[in-house]
Amino acid sequence: MSGMKTGLCLAILVCLGTLALANRAPAQAGSIEFVARATPSSGVEEPVRGFPFYLLSKSFEDIEKEVDAADPKPDMNAFIDKLDSNFSSELKAWMKKNACVSLAGDDFIHKLNATNILGVPEFRKAYLERNASDQSSDFPKPKAKPSDQAKNPEKFEKLSAEYTEAIRRYIEMHPESVELVYLSLSDIDPGPKWNVLLGKRPPEIRQRTLELAQSKYFVARTQTDLQGQGFLRGIAPGAYWISTLDVAAVVGDVRPLWDVPVTVRPGQTEYVALSNVNSVQPARSSP
Fold this sequence. Notes:
alpha+beta
């Protein structure tokens, strides 16, 4: 009897040991089968043939956001502060207030009014260059003489203030007189330099995003066959994204990108259909 009890105990211990080992064993891998098709404007669906697809542990879009957050955009105020002494403090203050460093184009012109044209030395000089030289117009003429500044400063100040006020009224009555001011500001316009600074960032963001997608977040890669089918085997259970990174497929006149979530379960095959419906716009690749 005691022998039977001993055998039973041994059998129970063996079963418990087997269960423990099973619990410690890695989860059984799964797989993904997908088909990629796109429909151009002709309306005839076509398979995406011979195209590379990546399996990522993080969506390409979120990788891009991660890189973008880690590399802040250039600070406009800091850029303005670094402008040299040729820029007046009034102009720098105007730039900061209006979040504008470009001194050209319609957006700039729409920001101008009589107060800041007369209050910012560079704007006033440019405005007078474009208007005061036209002898045929009714533009106000200055009455203060340079000699009065030393001989009779009070008179000079009074006549200068009257001239400024006359210019203000003229601007308000003739808003079109402001339209060509930017032509006299082109030599000091810091806008192009700011645009160059901004232009350097997108390629850097793109390159870093691609590097992370193909290293830190890379899981597997495959290429579709002639039917547009792709297969990914031996994938550990978890959440993934089937992605074309930032390379768009070319099917007729459509350029689809994919960044589609998929969940792999132990020992199972997940089936995914990629089409125009779950594609994303190529513009996403330009941060």
